[in-house]
Amino acid sequence: MTYYTCFDQGGDVIARCQTQQQIAVLREMGRPISKIQKMRQEEAVVCSLTGSPAEYDEEL
């Protein structure tokens, strides 16, 4: 699985998402996403073991 980390302009993590559609929803909600970075494989494994990517989204 591929996971993405979304950052704001200050470099703070906004959310971790699994699909581009989830990222699009955050943008539609007005979240100030300025950078999207594909997570490394070892980071993605942690996300898949700890629950759904939505659990990492701060406001979803």
Describe this entry's structure for a reader.
A hairpin with a 5-residue loop joins strand 1 (4-7) and strand 2 (13-17). The chain is globular, with a radius of gyration of 11 Å. The longest helix has 10 residues, at 41-50. Helix content is 32%, strand content 22%. The protein is built from two helices and three strands; from the N terminus they run E-E-H-E-H. The chain has a three-stranded antiparallel beta sheet with strand order 2-1-3, with helices on one face. It starts with a strand and ends in a 10-residue tail after the last helix. With 60 residues, the chain is of the alpha+beta class.
N- to C-terminal distance: 20 Å
Question: Number of helix segments?
Answer: 2
Mean pLDDT: 76
- State the order of secondary-structure elements, H for helix, E for strand: EEHEH
Strand order of the largest sheet: 2-1-3
Strand content: 15-25%
Number of strands: 3
Which percent range fits the helix content?
Answer: 25-40%
Instruction: Tell me, briefly, the overall form.
Output: globular
Identify low-pLDDT runs.
Answer: none
Radius of gyration: 11 Å
Q: Briefly note the structural class of the backbone.
A: alpha+beta
Biggest sheet architecture: 3 strands, antiparallel
List keywords for this structure.
globular; 2 helices; single chain; three-stranded antiparallel sheet; 60 residues; alpha+beta; 32% helix
